[in-house]
Specification:
By secondary structure, the chain is of the alpha+beta class. It has 7 helices and 16 strands. The radius of gyration is 19 Å and the shape is globular. The two termini are about 15 Å apart. Belongs to the CRISPR-associated protein Cas6/Cse3/CasE family.
């Protein structure tokens, strides 16, 4: 279940200049709202049949970068040239989710930035997006950088992009891993999996906790791609993201074109009927 958040830029508070690397601050703002409404969050989880495990690292949702229609980039700063920006947030559970999102975000303000510049954003509107009818094949666009890491021979980790020979397998293992964490068992159907790149990938280096002793850098890629697999796996990826560090706002995707299923089947409900479900 996906929602578009329309955010008003309150330039009178701190100005309208964001750091290019704002994703850590955006994810912190989202999780802060959950922590401040944790009883509401637990009730929403349990009403959808998910175990209320107190673990804020991985959740049944994903969220995009900010969509800013007009900007001016100066070094590591984004000058916002519009009065409103947007972002998208998706949730795998459906029951009570519209009310949950409204209570969580309606009228709330977020302050994003670092010690050099900040921007205050106010949630002006929340729009529920039409639900896709998931089929076996779809074309996607990354709404935030997609991140994959692999182990080097010395056991250190490195970020890899679509030119990595095993990149399609990273996708495959990521979505199957999500399925197993959600439903508590491996996917036992025919995935019919295939992956192909549809555009030139753009490498993005995003700083986390900039100008602090904990500063680090995450490497991800923005691109369009085509994916074939079971409809339930499409649904899981669309709602909860793909790759690593999804909890920090990476790996959110949008459907560009799809082959829809011939009926209005709720794949998530069907899977839940067969087995107990737990939170990621």
């Amino acid at each position: 279940m996906r929602f578009k958040l329309v955010l008003s830029v309150k330039s009178e508070s701190f100005g309208s200049v964001l750091p290019v690397s704002y994703q850590y601050e955006l994810s912190a703002a989202v999780y802060r709202r959950i922590r401040e409404n944790f009883e509401l969050y637990l009730h929403w989880l349990s009403s959808n049949g998910f175990a209320p495990i107190d673990d804020c690292r991985n959740r049944l949702f994903s969220f995009s970068n900010l969509y800013i229609p007009r900007i001016r980039v100066e070094y590591d700063r984004l000058h916002i040239l519009v009065k409103r920006v947007q972002m998208w947030i998706s949730f795998l559970p459906v029951r009570g989710t519209h009310e949950f999102v409204k209570q969580l975000f309606s009228g709330e303000t977020f302050v994003l930035g670092d010690r050099r510049s900040r921007v205050e954003l106010e949630v002006e509107d929340i729009v529920e997006c039409p639900a896709p009818e998931f089929g076996e094949e779809a074309e996607y666009l990354a709404l935030s950088p997609i991140v994959f890491m692999v182990a080097r021979p010395n056991r250190s980790m490195e970020y890899v992009g679509p030119d990595y020979p095993g990149y399609a397998d990273c996708f495959y293992r990521s979505v199957l891993g999500k399925y197993e964490k959600i439903f508590g068992r491996p996917f036992d159907g025919d995935t019919g999996f295939s992956w192909s790149l549809l555009s030139e990938p753009k490498r993005k280096g995003i700083f986390m906790m900039r100008f602090t002793p904990e500063e680090s850098k995450v490497i991800g890629y923005m691109y369009k791609f085509k994916l074939s697999m079971s409809p339930i796996l499409h649904q899981i990826m669309y709602e909860t993201g793909i790759g690593e560090k999804v909890n920090l706002g990476f790996g959110c995707v949008e459907i560009l074109r799809q082959d829809t299923t011939p009926n209005d089947q709720n794949f998530l409900s069907d899977e839940k009927d067969d087995t107990s479900v737990k939170i990621i």
